Request: fold
Amino acid sequence: MTRSTGTDRRLPPAARRPMGGAAAALALAVVLAGCSGDGEDRQAAQSAGRKQALTASPAQTAAIGAPGASLLAMPAAVRRDATRLAQQASFGPSEALVNEIRSQTSATWVAGQMALDLSRYSSGGGDAIHRNTSETDFCSQPQFASPNCWRDWYSTEPLSWDFYRNAVSQPDQLRQRVAFALQQILVISGHEVSGTYGFRHYYNNLLALAFGNYRDVLRKVVLSPVMGEYLDHVNNDKFYPNENFGRELLQLFSLGTCLLTPDGRLQGGSCQPTYDNATVRNYAFALTGWTYPPGGATPWGCWPEGANCPLFGADMVAAPALRDANARTLLSGVTVAANRTAPQALESVLDSLMRHPNIAPFVGRLLIQNLVSSNPSPEYVGRVAAAFESGRYRSGIKRFGTGTKGDLAATVAAVLLDAEARADLPHGGFLREPVLLFTGALRALGGATDGAPLGWWWGETLRQHVFNPPSVFNFYPPDYPLAGTALVGPQFAIHNANTALERFNFLTYLFDWNGSDPDPNIPNAVGTRVNLDAFAGIAGTPSTLVDHVSVLALGKTLPATPRQRVIDAVAYWNSSNASSDWKRRRTATAAYLVLASPDYMVQR
Amino acid sequence: MNRTTRHDAGRRAFLRRGAGLAAGALAGAAGLPVMLGSRHAHAADYKALVCVFQYGGSDGMNMIVPTDTTRHGQYAAVRGGLALPRASLVGLAGSQFGLHPAMAALQPFWTAGQLAPVFNLGPLNRPLTKAQYLAADAGSAIVPQALFSHSDQQKQWESAASDSLSRTGWGGRACEVLATTNPTISVGGNGLFGVEALRSPLVLPGPGSGFGAYGLMPDDLGWEPNRLRKAAVDALYAETPGGILGGAFASQQRVAFEMSDRLSGIVGSTPGDAMSVPEIDAAFAPLIQDGYIYSWFGQQMYQVAKLIAYNATVQGSRQVFFANQGGYDTHSGQAWGDATTGPHADLLGELADGLAAFQQAMNNLGLGASVTTFTEADFGRTFAPNETSGTDHAWGNNHLVLGGAVHGGATYGTYPTLVLGGPDDVGVESWELQGRWIPTSSVDQYAATMLAWFGASPAQLDAILPNLANFGSARSLGFL
Reply:
């Protein structure tokens, strides 16, 4: 199936499309759950399926009137604030979402979001890979052998399908955003560990605990067999334990390397170390004595003695044979007494972290950076840290949190509802990371996706292949300096002259090339595309079209001169030079230019 | 744009914009542009510095190993299963050292006097003895901050600092102070090394990449819809957005368009195509299979070679480059069998093959003495292995410098005393005797040696390297 290129030099030949993108056959009724049309005539199936995919928008109910109309009618300040909250607390504003936000107080909306708990990961294979007692490699066994065996049973690709489907269409947007933030702090990566079901379990835990307590999140992280493999802590040796996990637990997951004031600044103005090497060693010893949960099997038994075979589907369990018996001094005045069991020692470890004055500003600042702004003022960090400390936050009559230190509901509410988050500040906002560019573009234009091209293709191209950060330091560090300013811009660490242009190419792919067809190699494939026809009713008037797209994506209209240039580009297309699809071309042009603008790329 | 149109476009772009190009360059008989003269037209006294960063922290104690029986015996006694057999080492004639067997590709450059190992380098605030290290208070400025932390040590190596607070890299500061035409060009990501106060490094993709926005490149603009879109994009980016991040983003975007216009042809060129350089392709032949370089590190060095060869287009008489090779954090299973194979061997092999091809390409182009390549890494690794046949985070490390101007065929720096808990080892307690060497030469001195060759005056060296003054008159390690 080829796109018509004709004399349109802007559309590249089919040869430019990457492998896997061009489907040899389309399933009929791909948008709604349906069977592939095995017995159907292939041509009819292709054109019918394609037409259906172009016109259906499963993610949104049909808009009444032109999309954006109600937003244009809103007072500008209201619209701007509601759109801003949607940018911060969802995977991208849509008209429906912005209307929902403005119909209640921000606090009420946030509370409602926290009560929703719908999204989970379900795709990919199970734990059979770790119950294989035959000497034949799992993917070589006849019942599992397929070109997709590694993908489905070992890689994180199935999870990225779920991630993008949920992000674009599921209503528990804030929960997903917070889980996405947590996974960029408590990092594991498909680069170094494999076993799809293990990652599924880990990320489902983050979704479930997104509004719980950070102590419980940390416990799940410490007990994760995937994390145990990733940072060399499962079956850790009681004589000379590997310090990798102990170090990163302190440095990246809880406290950071330097002592902090309650508002996140360096104590004393320079780095006073939070811990030394001896302390890292003590944490490593305190965390010995954990092994995989029982039930795994290999043809050669389980090693070392006293440990279980690899299995990823549940928390690690205690392995007394591997447990260090000595007393170990931790931080915050906490000591693990001699002969404590692994679970007892774990609670002491968690006590030492949760009691430490660093944890509130450290975690608070990272949540602010992930949701709202790369450069929060110390005062803002202080207020969020106070919510983490106290476990409570109040906005008007709305109360968040249960009063235990580490309450994420209170902390997230503080992040979003703080005056600094709701304000329009020169140093505010952050560079929209690639994942949020993909989902934002789809959500603004009534799109749908099965996630297939957003991982290995566009994720890799823009250096954010979800679930595959290059290291435990995530895709980018929180303190990446932004040249030409006195600020930091974490997302700029994966942004450069090349990716800057590839962002534009993603928009070309989605709006001009019509995204991706459903890939028959993906279960329940729907392809990746937006609904350009939703704007057909207003595409006749370029200025109206441009303003509608602008308020949807930006919460405001464009400045005068660029707005006119955008209108000129949109207005080129008409019934004479593109009789069959001039309205779609206009919409594609408007969407491309508005989303390519710096006001969209940097959300503020 | 497909390959053909992109390459034609790139070629036309080159014809229009190649600085120093005589008017009316013609295509030769085989379709190769007869512009070999302009390809080799370099700014007078052209010099390039190429930083190769081994992310994760490379085990330098197995990259270069003593070959004399006494020290090799000491080495083998501690290294146990990770010890490289003496007979397996790639001999560095005239020295008492050999390279890891996987690095045989670099031996000819040692023979030609173009390779110099430098021992026990690392971040320091000032010269530091073991006694001073042990006596220092926690948080004291005389000991680098957060030793053994990947992110902190990477920053300190890249910024020539002893704390992790610098907003600029030393490559970036060198470009600022020397007022180079271009910022650091990176083919391996956005490392701090090339960041300047005002300019970001120019990060370019690998061979075969488009490096351009579809529909917005110069050759697309003859078609009205594209021209109108580009005009709209330019208008959107000419506005000063209300925010600081937006302003920085917009400014980077404008640079991206300009760089794409100028460099996309060179960047996209692959072995054997119209814009490839025969001298470079010949040098990289061992890495090329069916017109493709499979090694990612090899691809990076190939890009650097092209960008040097096409100096007339890239412009500038001083250019800093940055490349990276990751995966060196070998906490377990670092080596297999007799220790000559395994993950670390694979990495060093890829490194050596890429460096050798690159230096050969420079030699082929007559630029061998104009380019100096050097390695850096987060840190060295523990001399004593851990219990999982790996090594852990340490401090002082061994590195390599390569180039025609290098006083090669000799070693530099001070090789550590191979005693756990000895004078070079930070460890004192019985449980911390793993051989983490306190560096005897600093990143500042390493950088200063190279930057002096690169053209920095003494005053400029102090501006680029704030801690250099702490090392008194020892401002050069002698290898350049």
Notes: The radius of gyration of chain A is 25 Å. The longest helix of chain A spans residues 497-512.
